Amino acid sequence: MDAISSSRRWLLSVAAGAVTGPAVTDRAGSQRHPEGREWSGPWTRESRAAVVRAMPEAVAWARAARWPFGAVLVALDGGAVAAGAANSAEDGDMTAHAEMNLLREAAARGVRLRDHAVVSTAEPCPMCAGALLWAGVPAVAFGTAGARLTALGVPQIDLSFESVARRSSVGPRPAVARGVRADLTDPLYEELARLWRGAGGS
Predict the structure, then answer these.
(1) Is the dihedral of CA 63, 199, 195, 178 positive or negative?
(2) Which pTM value belongs to this model?
């Protein structure tokens, strides 16, 4: 592929990811775009496009895990994926959620977190939310909401990322994007819920 074709494909992908359309307000009062994404905080057109493009890679990490949760670290300026991780709690460390593993990987590589967003297939649990806040991550994007996981019967601590962030005095509150590529992430947890029910919830 020549440089012009490559640049044109990149530009088109950015434009497609950045189109948000008119926002509508749901009953809870949150701003929701027609394609199902919600954004709060200082997202730029470029950073929105970057996290949308990165979600398929987070999904790929999730698919490699028994518990299908994945996360990647994406540069807010340029959109390069700096690191990725999957949930590995089944190995005996129950803190080894995808976001926790991602932060450990970023620390091992010396990645400057304040220049990156965390893109996760599902809303970070309270443990991971606290870790992301302590780490100073400036932006967090996720696909499937915790409330959706709870509704499906996937075990959760029912406390939203933003509830944890509101109670934090650790640095500025990160920008948050909800429902990013939920068309890719929701099926992971619908299948997990079917397997969970079939195994008797064990």
Answers:
(1) negative
(2) 0.81
For the beta carbon of residue 198, count every other beta carbon within 10 angstroms: 8
Q: In this structure, which amino acid lies at residue 99?
A: E
- 99 given a catalytic annotation: yes
Give one DSSP letter per residue of 25-54, joined into a string: E-TT--EE-TTS-EEESS--HHHHHHHHHH
Question: What backbone phi and psi angles, to 5 degrees, belong to 176?
Answer: -130, 135
> Which pair of tokens denotes residue 143?
């696909």
For the stretch 18-62, pLDDT in tens is 333 334 333 333 344 434 479 999 999 999 999 999 999 999 999
Residue 111 and residue 103: Cα distance in Å, rounded? 9
Question: How far from 32 is each of 131, 150, 180, CA to CA, in Å?
Answer: 27, 21, 11
Answer yes or no: are the C-beta atoms of 21 and 39 closer than 8 Å: no
Other CB atoms within 10 A of residue 118 CB: 30
Q: DSSP strand E in 112-181: where? A: 116-122, 139-144, 175-178
Q: What tokens appear for 163 in the block?
A: 């509830």
* Residue 154 CB contacts under 8 Å (≥ 6 apart), including other chains: 189, 192, 193, 196
Beta strands in 76-152 (DSSP E): 81-86, 116-122, 139-144
C-beta separation of 110 from 172 below 8 A: no
- Per annotation, catalytic residue among 38, 46, 99, 123: 99
